[in-house]
Amino acid sequence: MAKLTSLYESFGLKSVRTYIQSGNVIFQSDGGSMESVRSRIERGVERSFGFPVTVLLRKPSDLQRIVRDSPFGSKRGVRPDRLYVTFLEAQPGPSLVSDLIPIAAKSEDEYRLMGKEIFLHCPGGYGKTDLSNTFFEKHLKMKATTRNWNTVNRMIAIADEISG
Fold it and tell me: Are residues 102 and 82 in the same domain?
């Protein structure tokens, strides 16, 4: 993770912090659009580590909104350790979303799509769900990454720490 931190700092990003070894990087940026920052990171990772990655960026305010607006957060009987968020690279088109409905209806797990995030409740655990990251990437035809509820909350806490 030290090499990844150094790489991000080489782009002029400040207060770079990583959280667990799954590519969660929290940083401050003084300029440039999110798209230009994302593009620099993707090119830099490929150049430095030799493999392509898709970078999905969210602002701290996005993460706070995600926690605040979770459709499962106040639902009775939902354990936080069974909640996940799948971050999408874009908002999927309506036809792709409607194609998910009959497939996902066969699962005991629940999901709710809100913008570029999918909220997922897996009572039996994420390891047993059919509604995995791969499932959503395949059916929505885009890159995605999934994080558990604890990780989302920890990233908010780290963002709060570095913003002072």
Answer: yes
In a domain, 164, yes or no: no
Q: Rounded to whole angstroms, how far apart are CA atoms 142 and 129?
A: 19
Contact call for residues 83 and 126 (beta carbons, < 8 A): no
- Total-model pTM: 0.94
CA 115 vs. chain centroid, Å, equals: 13
Between CA 116 and CA 80, with CA 66 as vertex, the angle to 5 degrees is: 120
pLDDT in tens, 89-118: 999 999 999 999 998 899 999 999 999 999
Do both 126 and 66 map to the same domain? Answer: yes
Measured CA angle at 141 (ends 89, 85), to 5 deg: 45
Q: Are 50 and 79 found together in one domain?
A: no
Q: Number of structural domains, the chain?
A: 2
Q: What are the respective helix, strand and coil percentages of the chain, to the nearest 5?
A: 45, 20, 35
Residue 74 reports pLDDT greater than 90: no
Q: Do 93 and 118 contact (CB within 8 A), yes or no?
A: no
Total residue count of the chain as it appears in this document? 164
